[in-house]
Design brief:
Layout: E1 40-46, E2 55-59, H1 65-79, E3 83-86, E4 89-93, H2 97-107, E5 110-114
Parallel strand pairs: 1-5
Antiparallel strand pairs: 1-2, 2-4, 3-4
Domain SUI1: 48-108
Protein name: Translation initiation factor 1 (eIF-1/SUI1)
Keywords: Initiation factor, Protein biosynthesis, Translation regulation
């Protein structure tokens, strides 16, 4: 692989350099949490990149991170296992897809089993 020589600022790929002291990048774009009947979640089974440990990953949540953490805590409590919330995904330790799907359906969420 050869290195490409940069001949202009356009070669940097769209970076914008600003000298405006009041410029602030808006990184706190949070959407308002949708009600459970409008949420479409997916339940994935995974063991890649986790040292062979199996986990259940819930994706597709639309809303604020605090509401996602509350939902993650509910699932961890009802399953009696550990887990975490990262990158707008709920990660539950172990293969609890069926149990999690039952819990979320009782809470009013639309959930779909993805993969195997």
């Amino acid at each position: 692989m050869s290195k490409k020589k940069l001949n202009s600022l356009e070669d940097l790929g769209g970076f914008v350099f600003s000298t405006n002291d009041e410029f602030a990048l808006n990184t706190n774009e949070t959407e308002e949490t949708l009600p459970p009947n409008q949420q479409y979640l997916e339940a994935h089974f995974s063991n890649k990149g986790r040292g062979g440990k199996t986990v259940t990953v819930i994706t597709g949540f639309v809303g604020e991170e605090s509401d996602l953490k509350t939902l993650g805590k509910l699932l961890k409590t009802k399953c009696g296992v550990g887990g975490s919330v990262k990158d707008f995904e709920i990660i539950i330790q172990g293969n609890y897809r069926d149990k999690i799907m039952e819990i979320l359906q009782k809470e009013g969420y639309n959930i779909k089993r993805v993969g195997g």
